[in-house]
Structure formats: structure tokens, C-alpha cells
Amino acid sequence: MLETKTYPNGLTLVVDNMAGYESVAFNMFVKVGSINEAPSEYGISHFIEHTLFKGTKKRSAYQISKLFDDLGASINAYTSFEETDFYFKCASADVEPCTEAISDMLFNATFDITELERERLVVMEEIKMYNDDPQSKVEYLANSKFYAKTPYCRDVGGTISNVKALTRQKILNYKNRYYVPQNIILSFAGKITLKTAEMLVDKYFMPNFNGTKSQKLQQQLYKIMPSQNYAKSFKDNEQSQVCVTFPGLYYSSKDIYVAKIFDVAFGAGMSSVLYQTVRETLGLVYTISSSTAFNYAGGDMTIYFATSNKNVKKALQAVAKEILNIKKAGITKEQFDSAKNNLINKIKMSFESTSYVSLFNAKNISKFGKQITKQQYVSQFEAVTYNDMINYTKTLFLKNCYTVSVVGKNKNLELKKCFCL
Q: What is the DSSP track for 313-377?
């Protein structure tokens, strides 16, 4: 049973009591990410994610890790453009000590100078690691061009110079500004009742928010400017990494469900159009896929592939040909039915994971302002018709709005001659 409670100070509690499970998954979902950072704060959301693990008034960083390891539980966190999320999964009997530990991290983190400086080095190594990874690099290049003049154009972790400039006082100011009740969703899923979850929140969260000045974060909407962009970055690898990015959808769009079905048919599966043509028929790539992202800037639909440097032109031309075929004829009824069935069944299987359910529930409250049950979610996809798909594909792949990004060593590659709709 899915239940939601909003406290007088704005804190949101979501509990999904799942029969037949022995585990509990938990997310402390903070509705702030890199798009909320001022120029002097670039990278700070991600840095705070790291440093909350580095010790509290009563626990060292090692003791935090040891607590979860001793219980056979897992704990981690991530930062995105729009949120910072701290999560754990444990046996139901251990939900209280794990919840207390996350509360301790939130309210009693010391941000010790020695620990901050050590973790600063760790974060800079992480940035270097992703800069060395060709796929990560082409994704960042694509975002920097496609989302130019919006906060989505920046890397979530910031740059090394950004991270070097983050002071302890900046960190404290940012955390105190955004880590407030109205920006936090506490989500539990698994073998836990609302009564137990309320007890944990009343014991470990609510008393510590006393005196907190709570101001709800209002997410701004952004709009990308239609244009054709071609971007290259040199990297001496045997393969080139390629992204072709088109406009997607805002969270509020009525087409987000049909878009997910189209994505499966077009490039998200082994029987998809792109996989069957560019890999299986032409043999130009090992991996090729499409993905759809929704956000506050209109989202994107991105085609990604990796291929030998000599094959970039052929592969891009093959992708362009398939796009033109879609624009002309759409996908077939058979492809639609297969993709729809594929996605619905994968969703049903995903709901067998307490971790998936807990995060799913938190995200729905954050992005859509409401709870959505499994059946309600599945029903949205079941309601999509082939006629909806025909109408949706007519809106895709605008001639004057896409970005082609390549990371590789072919300096003489003329991208406009490789890909033009």
C-alpha cells in the first residue's frame, strides 16, 4: 500500500508497504542539484553528497561505513542536475539504526577541514576519471552544446578549478539554504508500515528541523534555442564516440508515455530499428542505443554509438537514413505492439525491487507533485494507442534543432557532410 504524508514544516514522507519482502529501501531525496548552483558554487551539490559521508559529531567516516557493513546493508548516494539522493537498503529488522545513521549524517556532519581537503582530492580524481572515459566525454560535449545557455550545459561535478574554489563556508551556506524540510522527501519501500516510518521520522528527523527556516525551492523552466550544432573533441582512441541529440519533452508533457514506447522501438532494444540496421545489417558498430530524458529544459532524445574512426561517416549517414524513414513512415504497428509490451513487462518486473520502488515514489512526488501507484503507471502505457504513436512521430527529429557530437581522433571529419536532415 502506497501512502504519503506531508508534515507542517513541508517535509514529505512516502511509504510503500510491499507484502512478501524482507528488505526495506530508503531514499532521502533532496530536491536540489547542479542546475540550482550559482557560478561560484559549480560542483557544490556533488561535493556535499561526498562530504556528508565524511564524519559526524559522533561517528567517523569509517564508523558510518562499518555500521552498514556490519548489518549487511548497502548505502550510497548520487547527484544529478535536479536532485541529490542518499539511499540505503537493509533487512527490515535493521531499518532503525540505518535511518538514524542517515539522520546523523544530515544533521550532524562536521565538514572537518582535514576530511574536506582529502575528499576534495577524491572528487578531483573522479572528475579526471570521467574526463578520460570517452563515452562520458561525448555525453558532456553533447550537453554543453545542446543545452547551451541553460544550467544543463554544465557537468554535474563541476570542473577541477570549481572544486578547488569550494570553501567550507560556501558548503555550509549552500546546505543550510537547500537542505530544508520542504525540499526533502523521505521514501521507504518494502517490509515497513506507515506507523513504523512515522515513528522513525518523528524520532530522527522532525526534532532536528526545529528552527530551520524552510523555503521551498521553485524549479525554473528553461528553453533551448533551436539550432544545428556540430561539435568535435580530439581523443586518441581506436573508436570514436558519437551522440546525436534532439529535443525531448518537459515533465509536464502529455507525450512522455508514448515517448518511452517509441524509444524502445527505435533504439533501446536488440530488436530496435537502430540496432537491427546499424549493427546487425551494416555491421558498423558494436553498441548503439537511443535514450529519452525529461527535464526542466524540455528534455532530449539522444542516439549514442561507438565505431571505428573510419566508420563514423557511414554510421551517421545510416542513422540519418533511419530517422528520415521514421519521419516518412513512422514505426509499424507490429513494432509498436512489441515495444509497448516490452516496456510494460519491464516496468512490472522493476517493481519487484524495493530500491526501484522507493526511488520511483520519491521522484514522482518531486517531479509531478503526486504519488503514482504501480497500476496507475502501467495503465498510462496501456492507454497509449498506435494512433498516438503516429501523431507523436510527426513531431520528432526537427530539421533545425539537433546536435551532433563526436569524440575521436579524426580531426578532418566534416560532420555536416556526415549528418544533415
A: HHHHHHHHHHHHHHHHH---HHHHHHHHHHHHHHHHHHTT-HHHHHHHHHHHHHHHSS---HHHH
**Alpha-carbon distance values, 218 to 221, 329, 392 (Å):** 10, 41, 30
What is the tens place of the pLDDT at every residue in 11-61? 999 999 999 999 999 999 999 999 999 999 999 999 999 999 999 999 999
At 57-100, the pLDDT tens digits run 999 999 999 999 999 999 999 999 999 999 999 999 999 999 99
Nearest to 132 by CA among 287, 238, 236: 236
Sign of CA dihedral 129, 135, 139, 145: positive
For strand 23-30 and strand 84-91, is the pairing parallel, antiparallel, or unpaired?
A: antiparallel
Q: Residue 396's pLDDT is what?
A: 92
Chain centre to alpha carbon of residue 351? 18
- Residue (of 76, 36, 27, 45) closest to 184 by Cα position: 27
- Tell me what pLDDT residue 367 has: 95
Give the sign of the dihedral formed by CA 288, CA 125, CA 142, CA 359: positive
Kindly write down the DSSP assignment for every residue of 109-166, as one continuous string: B---HHHHHHHHHHHHHHHHHHHH-HHHHHHHHHHHHHTTTSGGGS-TT--HHHHHT-
For β-strands 12-17 and 23-30, DSSP reports them as unpaired
Cα end-to-end distance, the chain, whole Å: 49
Q: Hey, what's the cell of 259?
A: 515517448
Residue type, 246: F
- Which residues on neighbouring strands pair with residue 30, listed in sequence order? 84, 184
Low-confidence ranges of the chain (pLDDT < 70): 211-215
- Angle among Cα 178, 184, 188 to the nearest 5 degrees reads 155
Nearest CA-CA partner of 411 in 278, 255, 234: 234
Instruction: Give the C-alpha separation, 245 to 309, whole Å.
Output: 20
Instruction: Judge contact between 181 and 7, C-beta under 8 A.
Output: yes
Q: Specify the DSSP element, H or E, that contains 101.
A: helix 95-108
Calpha distance 258→408 (Å, rounded): 34
Query: Which residue's entry shows cell 553498441?
Result: 287
Query: Which has the closest alpha carbon to 202: 223, 220, 190, 186?
Result: 186
Cα gap 333→321, rounded to integer Å: 20
Sign of CA dihedral 150, 152, 155, 160: positive
Per-residue pLDDT at 415: 92
